[in-house]
């Protein structure tokens, strides 16, 4: 590493620079233009920007390397994460466009904030230092707080934003406190140096700091018992914002958590595995049982995301190469299934406006078969039932856990998956077995297409899942 | 025809192609054409299932029954870098189940005349279910087996829930969650085996010997799944609900094929892969089987709903199967397979018999009926044949299966056979009682005055099943010849594995 020239290879930073520079440029564009057309242009440009960032991560970063004295790392894992985050954020923005227009929320700040949040996430997945980690987390979180309250005339959205902000700030505090403890006891903020410092004798201070960092990140991925904000924020925030919350930020935070645990604290597996074990079991359990009685589909998806984060934590608890790539496979499949599901939720619009109750879906499999069948497939896929691609994700997570000898954890995981099957089935039941009067107005083209494509893909991609696994295995081996 | 690579896959996925064609028409047609689609979907489904049946029969004709190994093997690399693969093949144990499935499907489609709403969806679900069921019997890869095994729950769930009776939602949810709970433990066991051996190829795993402790746990996990599917007493409680609420054709498939997946699982996984544990747990299985035979027979006797009665009778007959399988001698295992095939035919026919009068009167209460022989003589005759076959009358296929499993059990322990035999007597008690109450006696219910005898479709369905019952009852070698070499190989391998650990 050349300290004289900290930015040795400018292309390693291409995605982040594109995103940050693009966000500024779009901000200017937004300020100096007016009207529906300009807003649409900014949306299209933002989507283009996000895709460009994903492509830049894929093609411009070469073999990767370290930047800024090792504070920022570009490895296959970061590249993989950036591609998924960029694509899913672009899809989330595509979902948001018709919604924002019809709900009279089309302000250009939305796109800018979303791009800035993605910039933060790109930094998170590349963070190789406690400080760059914190900067990424905060950039992402601050943008997300505002997005949650984006519908500022709505009481529920404002409440969601405030709740998210207060609890998010608390978690950032935990994260910072943990980071400072780690720095105090190891004498460094760089992940590589911390790894060397903790590899020696038993370092209690560093362990306490690490637990604080885990807690702070557990907030971000909404793992139980730090999940309290999730249902309220998911319900209160505008639906496309919820769709965004449930996808890219989760992916970024879980990858960051995996990196923090595997790189600086890779030598302390025995210390953190129990913590992750407990977080995983609580998340799966609370997510599974909490969702059973929900009436609102967004709240249901909140609990579903809590329980799915539990499965992701199972993969981390495996603390192995298989665990890492299974985490990436699982999360990628999950993220895109969730996008499809929220696209279906956004299609639930009657003449009076959006509806969110599960009962409003009654009889939809017959009245609107395209929507009904797609949502059915997505529910089964997120539930991890066979013949849907979600099964493959869960299968390899369990495989990683069994391979690392975590038999009890994997048994608990499958038992909770049966409980969660009950609520996915409930949605299917309402759609297929019940009769309903609610008539939906035709969905916008993007919602229509994304729902159907995601629904079909949840089955048809099964034979091609090897390609995803192949890429994830390359990415997953980066950390060990 | 079946020399070609991939023929088995084509057979397995042929119904899916039919389902896809239906789905495409279903989604691309306008709303006012749905009636036309519904009408034509019956023909498409029937044609697809008949083609599948013809394919299955060709395969049976090409099958070399002297070869105990897998035939028509088809392998495609899929995720090979981690050890998973797409592998298909049949041996003497599985091929008959494929034929049974393929044979029952056209019958089910024909028997679905009473389905009036959402016919296209119904047919799609049915065809997908056929792929799943054939896939269970033909897959030679653990993960594929699990995918087919569990994937079949989804169409069945929709079938019970959408086209079922009054309490269908409860029954559908119970069916799905109960069987899923049983199966997830098997998934962990499969992953453990995968991780131990690095492959999910069943042909390789059949040659692998697992350690004693591992075998015990793996056995229990697999047992949890197959015992629920079978179903064995005391985890049978989902079955009566599912059967009673399912539409007639759904009940036929449940009894005819889905229950056989449990027995097939025992034969394919538990016995050959975990021989030590199988020997260790055999007394448990005998006990549960015998209790199951007696208890569910007594429960069946007390039922007021004909369909529920036949459902409990199914549980009792499956008790003979588990009893026979774990004797691990030739009579027991051959008899268990025989009993499964024969039960697939007989119980399907009985459910169809119930369906006939349910379609006419919309009730299954035994007390509602009586004296049907006066108005429906043809029905009475056919019902009598199937009732007798269910009792195990010599000359019907039910007799051979029961006598063979009982002989097998007798060789192990006469007391098992003694208690098992009471099941034969008890089945006569409940079956003859229900037959008397429904068919004989005076026709006291005025509503029955207008009931009409079988139409040609129903006669065709029931007569073909009747022929099946009688042919299998008289020419037992039709089945035993096909299964013999594979069963011998299974038993030899089992004994060899046991003597290896005993030394």
General description of the model:
The complex is a heterodimer of chains A (480) and B (503). Chain A contains 20 helices and 4 strands. Chain A is mainly α. In chain A, a hairpin with a 4-residue loop joins strand 1 and strand 2. In chain A, helix 13 runs antiparallel to helix 14. Chain B has 503 residues and is mostly helical. Chain B is built from 20 helices and 2 strands. In chain B, a hairpin with a 7-residue loop joins strand 1 and strand 2. The model of chain B has no long low-confidence stretch (mean pLDDT 86). At the A-B interface, helix 16, helix 17, helix 18 and helix 20 of A face helix 5, helix 6 and helix 7 of B.
List keywords for this structure.
heterodimer; A: 480 residues; mainly alpha; two-stranded antiparallel sheet; 20 helices; globular; B: 503 residues
Helix/strand order of chain A: HHEEHHHHHHHHHHHHEEHHHHHH
What is the helix content of chain B?
A: over 70%
* Mean pLDDT across all amino acids of chain A: 87
The major beta sheet of chain B can be summarized as: 2 strands, antiparallel
What is the gyration radius of chain B calculated from CA atoms? 22 Å
Number of extended strands of chain A: 4
Order of helices and strands of chain B: HHEEHHHHHHHHHHHHHHHHHH
Low-confidence stretches of chain A: none
Strand content of chain A: under 5%
Q: In one word, what is the shape of chain A?
A: globular
The helix content of chain A is over 70%
What oligomeric state is this?
A: heterodimer
Shape summary of chain B: globular
The strand line-up of the biggest sheet of chain A is 1-2
How large is the count of helical segments of chain B? 20
Span between N and C termini of chain B? 47 Å
């Amino acid at each position: 590493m050349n300290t004289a020239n900290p930015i040795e290879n400018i292309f390693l930073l291409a995605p982040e620079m594109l995103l940050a520079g693009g966000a500024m440029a779009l901000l200017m564009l937004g300020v100096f233009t007016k009207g529906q057309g300009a807003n649409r242009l900014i949306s299209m440009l933002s989507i283009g920007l996000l895709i460009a960032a994903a492509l830049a991560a894929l093609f411009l970063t070469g073999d990767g390397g370290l930047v800024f004295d090792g504070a920022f790392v570009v490895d296959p894992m970061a590249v993989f994460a950036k591609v998924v985050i960029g694509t899913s954020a672009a899809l989330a923005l595509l979902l948001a466009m018709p919604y924002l227009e019809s709900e009279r929320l089309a302000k250009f700040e939305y796109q800018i904030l979303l791009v800035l949040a993605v910039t933060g996430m790109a930094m998170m997945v590349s963070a190789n230092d406690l400080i760059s980690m914190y900067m990424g987390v905060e950039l992402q979180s601050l943008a997300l707080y505002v997005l949650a309250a984006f519908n500022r005339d709505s009481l529920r959205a404002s409440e969601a934003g405030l709740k998210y902000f207060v609890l998010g700030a608390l978690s950032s505090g935990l994260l910072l406190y943990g980071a400072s403890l780690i720095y105090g006891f190891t004498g460094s903020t760089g992940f590589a140096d911390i790894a060397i410092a903790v590899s020696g004798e038993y370092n209690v201070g560093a362990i306490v700091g690490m637990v604080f960092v885990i807690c702070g990140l557990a907030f971000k991925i909404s793992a139980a018992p730090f999940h309290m904000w999730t249902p309220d924020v998911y319900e209160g925030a505008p639906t496309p914002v919820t769709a965004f919350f449930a996808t890219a930020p989760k992916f970024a935070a879980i990858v960051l958590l995996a990196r923090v645990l595997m790189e600086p604290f890779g030598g302390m597996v025995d210390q953190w595995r129990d913590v992750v074990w407990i977080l995983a079991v609580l998340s799966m359990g609370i997510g599974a049982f909490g969702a059973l009685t929900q009436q609102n589909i967004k709240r249901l998806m909140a609990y579903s995301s809590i329980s799915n984060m539990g499965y992701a934590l199972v993969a981390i608890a495996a603390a192995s190469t298989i665990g890492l790539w299974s985490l990436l496979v699982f999360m990628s499949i999950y993220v895109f299934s969730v996008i499809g599901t929220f696209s279906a939720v956004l299609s639930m619009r009657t003449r009076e406006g959006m509806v969110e109750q599960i009962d409003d879906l009654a009889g939809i499999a017959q009245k609107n078969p395209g929507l009904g069948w797609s949502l059915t497939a997505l529910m089964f896929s997120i539930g991890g039932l066979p013949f849907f691609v979600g099964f493959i994700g869960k299968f390899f997570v369990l495989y990683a856990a069994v391979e690392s000898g975590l038999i009890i954890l994997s048994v608990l995981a499958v038992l909770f998956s049966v409980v969660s099957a009950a609520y996915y089935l409930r949605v299917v039941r309402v759609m297929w077995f019940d009769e309903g009067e609610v008539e939906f107005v035709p969905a916008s083209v993007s919602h229509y297409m994304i729902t159907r494509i995601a629904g079909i893909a949840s089955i048809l991609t099964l034979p091609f899942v090897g390609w995803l696994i192949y890429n994830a295995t390359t990415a997953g081996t980066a950390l060990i | 025809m079946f020399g070609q690579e991939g023929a088995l896959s084509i057979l397995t996925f042929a119904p899916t192609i039919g389902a896809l064609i239906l789905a495409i028409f279903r989604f691309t047609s306008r709303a006012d054409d749905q009636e036309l689609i519904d009408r034509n979907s019956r023909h498409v489904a029937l044609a697809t299932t008949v083609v599948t049946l013809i394919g299955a029969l060709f395969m049976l004709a090409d099958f070399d029954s002297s070869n105990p190994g897998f035939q028509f093997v088809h392998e495609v690399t899929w995720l090979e870098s981690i050890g998973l693969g797409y592998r298909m093949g049949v041996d003497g144990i599985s091929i008959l189940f494929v034929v049974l499935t393929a044979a029952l499907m056209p019958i089910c489609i024909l028997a679905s005349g009473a389905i009036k709403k959402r016919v296209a969806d119904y047919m799609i679900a049915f065809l997908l279910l056929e792929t799943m069921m054939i896939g269970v019997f033909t897959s030679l890869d653990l993960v594929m087996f699990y995918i087919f095994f569990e994937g079949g729950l989804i169409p069945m769930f929709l079938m019970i829930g959408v086209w079922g009776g009054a309490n269908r939602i409860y029954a559908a949810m119970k069916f799905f969650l109960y069987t899923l709970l049983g199966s997830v433990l098997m998934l962990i066991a499969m992953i453990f085996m995968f991780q131990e051996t690095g492959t999910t190829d069943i042909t390789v795993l059949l040659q692998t010997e697992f350690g004693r402790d591992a075998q015990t746990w793996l056995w229990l996990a697999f047992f949890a799944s197959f015992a629920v599917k079978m179903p064995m007493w005391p985890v049978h409680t989902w079955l009566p609900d599912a059967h009673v609420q399912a539409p007639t054709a759904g009940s036929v498939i449940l009894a005819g094929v889905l229950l056989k997946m449990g027995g097939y699982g025992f034969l394919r996984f538990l016995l050959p892969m975990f021989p030590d544990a199988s020997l260790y747990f055999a007394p448990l299985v005998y006990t549960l089987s015998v209790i199951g035979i007696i208890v569910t027979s007594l429960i069946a006797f007390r039922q007021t709903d004909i369909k529920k009665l036949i459902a409990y009778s199914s549980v009792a007959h499956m008790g003979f199967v588990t009893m026979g399988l774990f004797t691990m001698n030739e009579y027991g295992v051959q008899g268990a397979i025989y009993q499964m095939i024969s039960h697939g035919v007989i119980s399907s026919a009985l459910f169809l018999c119930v369906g006939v009068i349910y379609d006419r009167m919309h009730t299954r209460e035994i007390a509602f009926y009586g004296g049907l022989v006066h108005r429906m003589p043809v029905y009475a005759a056919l019902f009598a044949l199937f009732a007798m076959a269910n009792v195990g009358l010599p000359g019907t296929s039910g007799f051979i299966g029961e006598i063979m499993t009982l002989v097998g059990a007798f060789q192990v322990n006469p007391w098992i056979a003694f208690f098992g035999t009471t099941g034969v007597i008890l089945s006569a008690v409940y079956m003859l009682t229900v037959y008397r109450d429904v068919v004989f006696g005076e026709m006291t219910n005025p509503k029955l005055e207008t009931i009409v005898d079988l139409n040609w479709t129903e006669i065709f369905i029931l007569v073909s099943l009747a022929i099946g019952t009688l042919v299998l009852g008289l020419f037992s070698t039709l089945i035993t010849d096909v299964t013999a070499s594979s069963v011998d190989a299974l038993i030899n391998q089992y004994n060899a594995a046991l003597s290896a650990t005993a030394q």
